[in-house]
Amino acid sequence: MADIDDLLATDEATPEQTFEMLRVRITVLNERVWENRNQWPQVEAWLANFDGRAGFDPEVEQLHALFLLSQFLFIGSAETRVLLQSVYRDLFLIPLIQEVRESLGGCRDRHIVETAVNEALAKTRFLGVGNPSESGVHLLYYFRQENRLSKSQFLDSAAVFTSTLGEDGKIKRALADSDIERYIFVDDVCGSGDTAVNYSDGIVTELLALKPDAKLHYLAMFATRKGIETVRSTKFGAGSAAVFELDDSYRCLSAGARILLDAPPHIDPATLEKVAMSYGALLRPGYPGGWGNNQLLLGFQHNTPDNTLPIMWAEGDASHPWTPAFKRYAKL
What we know:
Blueprint: H1 2-9, H2 15-32, H3 40-47, H4 58-70, E1 73-75, H5 77-103, H6 110-122, E2 124-128, H7 135-146, E3 161-165, E4 171-175, E5 182-190, H8 194-210, E6 215-224, H9 225-232, E7 240-246, H10 269-283, E8 298-300, H11 310-313
Parallel strand pairs: 1-8, 2-5, 5-6, 6-7
Antiparallel strand pairs: 3-4
């Protein structure tokens, strides 16, 4: 590899040498990061999707596809658990401690502050974003384990409310526990912010109608900057945050994409965009660059978000068959 590395450093590598360098990089990523989800025969099956339909020679399309794959950010099970620790500690617990201290006039007595924080925690419930089968709820199991929380501190959205039949024959809704003051909604990724907006228009609106002073937080492991700003404009408000906020440089096909800052020889930005968007349009005509045109190269051990380029996760259909690299399990 030393000879190839030297050639790449001087921009004298052939397309074949660039391809070989990327192949080695992906082999290492698969062994060390991707949990062996894409061994080389599987990568070759994915590359076979790129057969010239974007208007280039198949070899050119496959070289650019391979470069995109080499930049894929995969969040495995170990990384997910660490990120969930950070969601709890950095986005929730530390701000809560600061809030409690301020409410106590800047008190720094550890015992007094700890007692007040525990009282606040007793009136806090954690929820996933989505129904019980979706990833936001799925993450709560690991969230509870990693942060050593009691299962009594968790709710599903249906358990927030109770329904009773009034004397007038009408259904009346109430909070299941009126003593709860904080509701923390946990998610894996906020791309466009649409899911949180839907929650804000639904469950959050009803919750605030019953308890106007409830404190709400939307906390994610990853969020695009525009997505989290959208969430902050909803009823979740300023209590919305992510461990990692992804700016526009993470839009992998944009002019300022960070993956292009150190691209190897024979990777052309215009070709890269046309290849990804042409096949993306075949697979997902409404959003060839991923939902909201977020153009992400991001996936988790439990699923791949639809904000990621469809060429990475789509399976296609009878008219456009497609072998995915990181399969997405869609919401049905």
